[in-house]
């Protein structure tokens, strides 16, 4: 798949990684061994790629290896549980997307509580979700897709990065708002979900535009609308959902770093400081812009407030749409 490509040199070199000294709030002796960043999806998606671009810069700042590990499955639950069960010393971190919240809401047996067991550290980026279709589907607007789907109930299916994830929520909100019957197909990450879209195995997808932008520009997928408040600068001809008549679909996907609850505050602050420094470099800003993403910039306090607020918001959406996993 050509989407969301980065060069080997960019990944290994961290976009020109240089030593990035922090503000000096480090816990004495931390880190004293390699730091692992756990990602709950297969390689190639936005959570994975942002983590891999961030890792070399943190490694330069900390003087210890920073290793990204993929533990895909259960829409990130497996990865999150492994971090929650790790020592709260800052040597095991989680780089997660908004699905961290939605999966915890809809899965009935999640073995952790997001607000109790995790410490939000830093929001790294955000990106709108897009409604995408295969080019062979004879629709070019949201209205045309709605008419097509209503004439063919249960014939269409839409792919997402996983059951209970942000794409799944967007799809179910869309179905409720449009009164259409489109079947959900869950994958183990954004990359395979989009691979089947461009292969024509599914005709519709709800996906973060971080991964889908290149495919849309190359004509391998068609974007009908995006969830951002304004049109994307990279795709000025693609309307927002609000412009298309569906203002309830207006939430972007965010990505962020988390640590086990109880991680010392000086370590949390050090990680947030160094992540903020890394993400403010011109190279990283350029990369995020090219991938239809915005830098996050929220540290521990504001990020926790956002997580708490959105847990309430997405729980209400789950109740209204009936999303629930066993």
Automatic annotation (TrEMBL):
The keyword Membrane does not apply. Keywords: Receptor. The lineage of its organism: Bacteria, Pseudomonadati, Pseudomonadota, Alphaproteobacteria, Acetobacterales. This is Tripartite-type tricarboxylate transporter, receptor component TctC. It comes from Muricoccus roseus. SUPFAM superfamilies: Periplasmic binding protein-like II (SSF53850). InterPro entries: BUG, Bug_dom1. Signal peptide: none annotated. The keyword Cell membrane does not apply. Belongs to the UPF0065 (bug) family.
């Amino acid at each position: 798949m050509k989407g969301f490509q980065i060069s080997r040199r960019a990944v290994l070199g961290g976009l020109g990684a240089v030593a990035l000294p922090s503000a000096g709030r480090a816990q004495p002796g931390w880190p004293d061994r390699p730091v692992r960043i756990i990602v709950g999806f297969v390689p190639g998606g936005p959570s994975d790629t942002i983590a891999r671009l961030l890792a070399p810069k943190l490694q330069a700042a900390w003087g210890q290896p920073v290793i990204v590990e993929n533990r895909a499955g259960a829409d990130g639950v497996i990865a999150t549980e492994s971090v929650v069960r790790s020592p709260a010393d800052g040597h095991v971190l989680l780089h997660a997307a908004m699905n961290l919240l939605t999966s915890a809401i809809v899965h009935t047996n999640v073995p952790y509580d997001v607000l109790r067991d995790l410490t939000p550290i830093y929001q790294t980026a955000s990106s709108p979700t897009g409604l995408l279709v295969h080019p062979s589907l004879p629709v070019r607007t949201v209205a045309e897709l709605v008419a097509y789907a209503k004439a063919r109930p249960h014939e269409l299916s839409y792919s997402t990065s996983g059951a209970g994830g942000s794409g799944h929520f967007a799809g179910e909100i869309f179905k409720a708002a449009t009164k259409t019957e489109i079947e959900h197909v869950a994958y183990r990450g954004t990359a395979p979900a989009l691979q089947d879209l461009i292969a024509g195995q599914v005709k519709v997808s709800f996906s973060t535009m971080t991964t889908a932008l290149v495919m849309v520009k190359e004509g391998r997928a068609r974007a009908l609308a995006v969830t951002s408040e304004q049109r994307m600068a990279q795709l000025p001809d693609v309307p927002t959902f609000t412009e298309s008549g569906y203002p309830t679909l207006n939430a972007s996907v965010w990505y962020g770093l988390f640590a086990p609850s109880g991680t010392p505050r000086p370590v949390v602050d050090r990680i947030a400081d160094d992540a903020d420094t890394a993400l403010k470099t011109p190279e990283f800003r350029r990369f995020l812009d090219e991938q239809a993403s915005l830098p996050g910039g929220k540290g521990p306090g504001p990020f926790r407030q956002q997580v708490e607020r959105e847990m309430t918001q997405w729980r209400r959406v789950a109740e209204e749409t009936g999303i629930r996993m066993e």
